[in-house]
Design brief:
By secondary structure, the chain is an alpha/beta fold. It has eight helices and nine strands. The protein has a nine-stranded mixed β-sheet, sandwiched between helices. Helix 1 crosses helix 8 and helix 3 packs across helix 4. The longest helix has 18 residues.
Length: 264
Amino acid sequence: MRRVALLLSLLMATIGAMAADYKIERDLQYRSDDDYAKKMCRLDVAVPEGAKDAPVIVWFHGGGLTGGGKHIPNEIMRDGAVCVGVGYRFSPHVSVDQIIDDAACAIAWVFANIESYGGSPDKVYLTGHSAGGYLVSMVGLDKSRLKRYGMDIDRVKGIIPFSGQMITHFEERRVRGMSDKLPLIDKMAPLYHVRGDAAPILLLTGDREREMLGRYEENAYMYRMLRLVGHKDVTLFEFDGYGHDMCLPGYPMLMNFIREREKR
């Protein structure tokens, strides 16, 4: 586990914020089960000029699984990476389980289609903030999620949740009549699916004294359990001075994580 000082992380975020010139294709449909899915299950693909066999960053937005909207942060549109911003359905219109399946379906779409946008299906990195971090952690660790689509999640090169929930999501607990301060770990928790053979993982959180509902501690527990089951490439960063909205210093960490792996 590493703590990152506020001034250092601000400097890194400033340096990392210069995006290359990208063209964005918007509102591509990845699921059409019904009218609500047709409306919500869409994604945007940002492609740099001349992209070929490029790394792919798949970004899931936050919003507590009840709101928010698809977008691609400017800070990740750089280094020649193809970027995908994913929209998904919300509770209470659908269950949390269905939302996780939306995430799996979108990732399956990326594997099947991203080559036509200049991205490599063998260089896919899954990331997102808060609820988005929960979704990529669930799909990244529970192999059954992508197996439904005939694909292996371990094909991804990295899983990078920004302040992701590692216990059962508080929206799932709310639906069950539980308090958001009553912890639970069951099949709807990334921690339930911890395994040593998962893709490389970078866990990013805000300051433990400023984060939402013990989010740092959830990620610290995930880090420890991954190490105990033999995972050899997991790192935890805590950003001093930041609360739950800790994306700014997280973006350069994400990009550096990708650069390091693309050199190997």
